[in-house]
Design brief:
Strand order of the largest sheet: 3-2-1-4-5-6-7
CATH superfamily of one domain: Formyl transferase, N-terminal domain
CATH architecture of one domain: 3-Layer(aba) Sandwich
CATH topology of one domain: Rossmann fold
Order of helices and strands: EHEHEHEHEHEEH
Largest sheet: 7 strands, mixed
Number of strands: 7
CATH class of one domain: Alpha Beta
Number of helices: 6
Bound molecules: 5-O-phosphono-beta-D-ribofuranosylamine
Helix content: 25-40%
Length: 200
């Protein structure tokens, strides 16, 4: 197959970018027939932008608007423009801390995925690992799902379980959930690059 057939990925994130780093490593090592074409962040100095740049991928800050939780319409259009310029097939949210709105959803129907640090539908929202730990769960984990207009409510694609150990703090549990994320997210991207369930 020519490189033109690779799944073209755009990544949105707000944080340190450890999931993006795992995705880059898996694309290179396995290999996965996919290519990260652009990295976008609503946080000017986010580590995820440095990770994108270190892999020579166009990585840029996009002004998100005034609301803390959402993107305003103009900034959503800016994101969509940046993704469309790179002919992105799949939008990967990797620690993107804003609610995705109607402009982005309409531009990429069933083509936006997210990773969440709990076994959804349990514990949507912020600090999900802490919610699971405080509730005394014996098992937690992470979920990759399609993004819809709700908060962590879209159709589930895959999950990985992580045992909660007796000596765990919320932080040690979170660290092991993140290790599981770094396997699960590349696995799902490999599956989507192979199966293209959204093609057509
Ligand atoms: C991950 O733990 C993910 O579950 C959540 O945000 C975090 C992002 O971490 N959605 P990183 O920026 O990929 O290191």
């Amino acid at each position: 197959m020519s490189s033109g057939d690779k799944l073209r990925i755009g990544v949105l994130g707000s944080g340190k970018g450890s999931n993006l780093d795992a995705i880059f490593r898996a694309i290179h090592d396995r290999p996965i027939f996919a290519e990260v074409k652009v990295v976008l962040s609503d946080v000017r100095n986010a580590g995820i932008l440095d990770i994108g740049r270190s892999h020579h991928v166009h990585s840029k800050y996009v002004y998100p608007g005034e609301s803390r939780a959402r993107l305003d319409e103009a900034s959503e259009r800016n994101l969509v423009n940046a993704l469309q310029q790179e002919h992105v097939d799949l939008v990967v949210l990797a620690g993107f801390m804003r609610i995705v709105g109607p402009v982005l959803l309409a531009a990429y129907p069933r083509r936006i995925i997210n990773i969440h640090p709990s076994l959804l539908p349990k514990y949507p929202g912020l600090r999900a690992w802490e919610q699971a730990w405080q509730a005394g769960e014996a098992v937690s984990g992470c979920t990759v799902h399609y993004v819809d207009s709700g908060i962590d409510t879209g159709e589930i694609i895959a999950q990985a379980e992580v045992d909660v150990l007796s000596g765990d703090t919320a932080e040690t549990l979170h660290a092991r959930i993140q290790e599981a994320e770094h396997v699960l997210y590349p696995d799902v991207i490999e599956y989507l690059a192979r199966e293209r369930p959204f093609a057509g």
